[in-house]
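Why does residue order matter? Because the sequence determines the fold. Keep that principle in mind as you read this record.
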Amino acid sequence: MSRLRLSAEAYQVPTDAPEGDGTLAWTSTTLVLVRAEADGHAGLGWTYGPAAAGAVVTDLLAPVVADLDPDDVPAVWTTMQRRLRNAGRPGVAGLALSAADCAVWDLKARRHGLPLARLLGTARRQIPVYGSGGFTTYDAEQQQRQLTDWVHEQGIPRVKIKIGESCGTEVPRDLARMTAARRTIGDGTELYVDANGGYQRKQAIRVAHAAADLDVRWYEEPVSSDDLAGLGLVRDRVAPDVAAGEYGFDLVYFHRMAPYVDCLQIDVTRCGGITEFLRAAAVADAAGLQVSGHCAPHQHLPVAAATPNLRHLEWFHDHVRIESMLFDGAQPATGGSVRVPLDRPGNGLEFRADRTDRYRVA
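Structure:
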């Protein structure tokens, strides 16, 4: 039987401009890359988070899966998640599990000469996306330039900006930026906003009512995603769809959240990888909900294609830029959707080691 090897590396890439949302700001992003190897083939998976996730892969996960059949992905996943019991599944350990699971799925597809989307099966071959960025750190010109590129150059018909600036203390600027965004994108494009949990319950409702004439369609984390009752309260009192779920690290999280939102977000690089993404999507479907893939767009493409109740995928500026830099095979989003790679084995990407040495931190 083939021996399964897991290894990890971390790369820190500076942003092209300072980025921030309602509750956090940053100037660099760390990608933790996991390789799953067997029989001369290598699968790739990654997550965004602390470099320490790589140590979890090499110290905790790699030793317990070495003697497992690489094709038995459910057995590999179960063994890895059990190993994390005392380390704590949510958080850094969950990031490691997610990247490793994605790498093992990619390895299986490559060993059998199949596109990963073929291995998982497809419900669609074009993935709808929405442009995501519009950081609170942007000035008016930066925001306009980014929105113009998405809508008028790439033809993306739905876009999102960050609001809830400074934990909800800059509401006039939030509303001004939303108004400017609508003016830039015109009436034919859907406007989404993301407060990253920056508002209080009634404050979030007041903001939505103040922006009623802007026809906002998506209101992401208007309050903390830990405040399930608050999410439900806002959902029932505003016109836009209320969404949350990007911080879900296990299936129980999504089960608890489903009754309180209009659309459940799932992040394949946090939730437990492809294995758990599909389960979480089924939980959402049982509650009558669609799901939306959160960030890491190229890591999501194959599993997004396999998810019947997918609404769309976040085309997040920071991650699109990094994945286009570090991988060959990255896809464009022209026309508002991204083609699922079906002409190359695995996820269709190749890591560009020649471009990455200067970014490596672990």
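The chain has a mean pLDDT of 97.
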